[in-house]
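in:
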């Protein structure tokens, strides 16, 4: 399987081709959660609330593992852009070794301290609390299986081949779709396991995915060739993986922590608001995972062109991607405002919960465009190795959600919906600041001066440029044939 060269050729079609499988992989991950919520919603709001609480700890774990994924994705793409295949393999091996150690440590901690972790939310319903503890412990037992796969996905994405991770993760989704109803509701000799069944189905599905990833990379079926799967850390590569991945991981860890704090603010209102937020977060993933797909594709594209020192392609690629991603954010806003009731009816049966869900989506709809801009811009920063700006903006403003939510959630102001207003308002500000940061950094960059000073006019010429890239892409395909 060949390494995809992103340093030449039509930019728009390259980014779209790279993004679509990444989006597919992201939607596979989203579909895992939505499948769980769809089936658990038939059990009741308590089951949804329990898994919603436990999901904060899995979210925290996945965030921690971003050190390995981002380090691998950026390191592999930059190495291949510089024609250093041995370096790319070293980044892959070191990233996997790091994630194995982190996942085992995190799994042990969450297993033994599950009761203390769940008690943080001050849940009044003992049934919800017990189910959340049990779910957390089952995932902890399968931590190595659950948390390793994103890093393997990042390694292969870094080669420019985003289709392969999508196909592998899709196999896991199919397994999860089949196993969920069987283990949640029981079938034949298999007893009804409720939320525990959902956790077991997830672990089994992720085991299948991990086995395929290991076989693919170890047997030479990826673009890196045959990589000997071994554990061990090389100081040079390990340090750079930590440097590249830590800001992004810290951002996501704090984001998860802030989400937990917001859930704790909501908890006194009961299981229904918790269930509404848990489901709403999965629905909202439609836009932030889409933006994340474009961000990952832009990061890989930028990484290769950064390694090849092709700054004109980096600038043009950014404005192309931000236009497409922002348009999708606007479409999601319209969808949330128009079809909020129909969406929540798929997951919940209680009318009070559905009505509250409609209010959730109408509030979050305001921020979708700005959230897409923020996440996508983070991709170009990651690609040039500057992972601190998006992390700094995200950490500071997401942290401000907590005092803002406490204030707005007062009964005399907005009540429980004040928590959701705090999310929307800070998302708008984050998008504006990060776009401005990259714009002014770009204008001050030496490669932007002179002939590249006119690049900003690209925004006005975008429709013509997109059409030309499509024509160039077709010509390129004909030449290949």
């Amino acid at each position: 399987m060949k390494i995809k060269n992103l340093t030449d050729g039509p930019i728009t079609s390259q980014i779209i081709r790279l993004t679509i499988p990444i989006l597919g992989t992201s939607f596979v991950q989203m579909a895992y959660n939505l499948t769980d919520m769809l089936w658990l919603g038939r059990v009741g709001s308590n089951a949804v609330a329990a898994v919603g609480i436990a999901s904060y700890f899995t979210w925290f774990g996945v965030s921690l593992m971003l050190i390995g994924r981002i380090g691998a994705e950026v390191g592999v793409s930059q190495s291949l852009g510089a024609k250093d295949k041995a370096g790319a393999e070293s980044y892959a091996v070191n990233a996997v070794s790091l994630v194995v150690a982190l996942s085992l440590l995190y799994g042990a901690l969450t297993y033994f301290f599950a009761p203390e972790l769940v008690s943080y939310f001050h849940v009044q319903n003992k049934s919800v609390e017990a189910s959340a503890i049990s779910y957390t412990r089952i995932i902890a037992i399968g931590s190595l299986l659950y948390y390793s796969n994103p890093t393997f996905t990042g390694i292969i994405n870094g080669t420019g081949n985003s289709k392969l991770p999508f196909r592998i993760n899709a196999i896991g989704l199919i397994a999860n779709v089949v196993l969920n109803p069987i283990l949640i509701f029981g079938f034949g000799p298999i007893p009804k396991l409720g939320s525990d069944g959902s956790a077991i189905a997830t672990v089994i599905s992720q085991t299948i995915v991990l086995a395929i990833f290991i076989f693919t990379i170890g047997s030479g079926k990826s673009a890196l060739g045959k990589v000997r799967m071994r554990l061990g850390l090389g100081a040079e590569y390990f340090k750079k993986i930590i440097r590249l991945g830590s800001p992004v991981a810290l951002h996501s860890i704090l984001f998860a922590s802030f989400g937990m704090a917001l859930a704790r603010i909501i908890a006194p209102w009961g299981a229904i608001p918790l269930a509404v937020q848990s489901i709403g977060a999965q629905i909202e993933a439609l836009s932030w995972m889409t933006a994340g797909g474009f961000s990952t594709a832009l990061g890989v594209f930028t990484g290769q062109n950064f390694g090849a020192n092709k700054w004109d392609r980096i600038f043009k690629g950014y404005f192309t991607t931000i236009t497409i991603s922002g348009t999708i954010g606007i479409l999601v806003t319209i969808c949330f405002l128009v079809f909020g009731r129909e969406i929540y009816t798929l997951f919940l049966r209680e009318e009070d919960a559905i009505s509250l869900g409609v209010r959730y989506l109408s509030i979050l709809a305001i921020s979708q465009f700005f959230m897409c801009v923020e996440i996508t811009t983070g991709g170009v920063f990651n690609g040039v190795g500057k992972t601190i700006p998006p992390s700094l903006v995200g950490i500071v403003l997401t942290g401000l959600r907590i005092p803002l939510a406490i204030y707005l959630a007062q009964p005399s102001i907005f009540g429980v919906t004040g928590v959701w207003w705090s999310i929307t308002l800070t998302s708008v500000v984050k998008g504006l600041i990060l776009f401005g940061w990259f714009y002014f950094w770009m204008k001050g960059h030496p490669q932007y001066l002179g002939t590249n000073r006119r690049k900003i006019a690209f925004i006005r010429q975008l429709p013509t440029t997109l059409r030309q890239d499509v024509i160039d892409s077709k010509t390129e395909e004909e030449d290949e044939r």
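note: The chain has one domain: 11-472.
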